[in-house]
Amino acid sequence: MATSTLGEYLRARGVSRRQFLRFCATSASLMALPPSMVPRIAAALEVARRPSVIWLPFQECTGCTESITRAHGATIESLIFEAISLDYQHTLQAAAGEAAEHAREKAMKDNWGKYLLIVDGSIPTANPGYGTIAGVSNLEMLKEAASGCAAVVAVGSCAAFGGIPQANPNPTGAVSVSDVVKDKPIINISGCPPIPVVITGTLVQYLTFGKIPELDALGRPKAFYGQNIHDRCYRRPFYERGQFAESFDDEGAKKGWCLFKLGCKGPVTYNACATTKWNNGTSFPIEAGHGCIGCSEPKFWDKGGFYQPLSAGDWGSGRTIAAAAGAGVVLGAAAAALGRKRQKDVEAKQS
Fold first, then answer.
1. Cα–chain-centroid distance for residue 198?
2. Is the entire prediction scored with pTM above 0.90?
3. Which residue range forms the structural domain that includes residue 248?
4. 258/174 same-domain check
5. Strand, helix or coil at 155?
6. What is the pLDDT of residues 113-155, one digit of tens each?
7. Lower CB count within 10 Å: N or C terminus of the chain?
8. How far apart are CA 271 and CA 266, in angstroms?
9. Are residues 78 and 179 in the same domain?
10. What CATH number has the domain bearing residue 342?
11. Is 159 in contact with 180 (CB distance < 8 Å)?
């Protein structure tokens, strides 16, 4: 574990006190904490020791790693991620072969009971040969690394829920981290890939309070997954008025109308896409003109229907929301029709 504190690390890289406090204020907002908590966050991060982190990539596409390495460029968000002592990560580490495995084993031994374990990718169980590292199966390596960690962070939908590798017919017997690890706290940061700020924000919360954040029923931080995308979407007013794009190139689409009829899964998908967005807050899929595909929810690939509107029987536990969304389409369309009739009546009287 690195000996420098997070405050020392940031100052050494030219981060001013004002920038640091601004980041703390943003972190408080992201975690739904009041402004009065900003000094506490700043004080905790200032003296926090850089924790040892072991990152194990299993059945994955490297998209989750690509996401975090593009965490808004050289900002404090990216520095927070760099400020952890990342002792093992296949894609980013310089070591290879025996040297890499020695680094993992040493980090575990030196920080037993204290290190954070990050996992991305699902775990194959049908045959150990489907996924091995240095001759050790993914399943056994996960069990070994989890035995000495303080907590596990399952990054991406593959690690959190099984993801695309678990989709039918699932030839590798892919499972999620929580299907294997039963005796450690697990934080699921789902998404395909997850939002960089959500990953760093969760790490900040852990560094600040020394414990895992409040989680939802699926083990995800409520600060980021507490509301569905639909409720925070800037297109929601069009939904309420019954104004929907019927195709991706019609007039409604050009005017930015709601994408519900084109299969948007925002009403049953819980994530921070509509508020934190991507690429330094530039945009997110719905803003770019494509409906949400629900990638942060379990079994999103098998549920499919990416371009079919939700119905009352869709998406399992989301049936109530889907039914309400369907009703909203009818009510919204009725309200829009009534509005048009009133406008015509006004125009008729004026003429």
1. 6
2. no
3. 230-350
4. no
5. strand
6. 989 999 999 999 998 789 998 899 999 999 999 999 999 999 9
7. C
8. 9
9. yes
10. 4.10.480.10
11. no
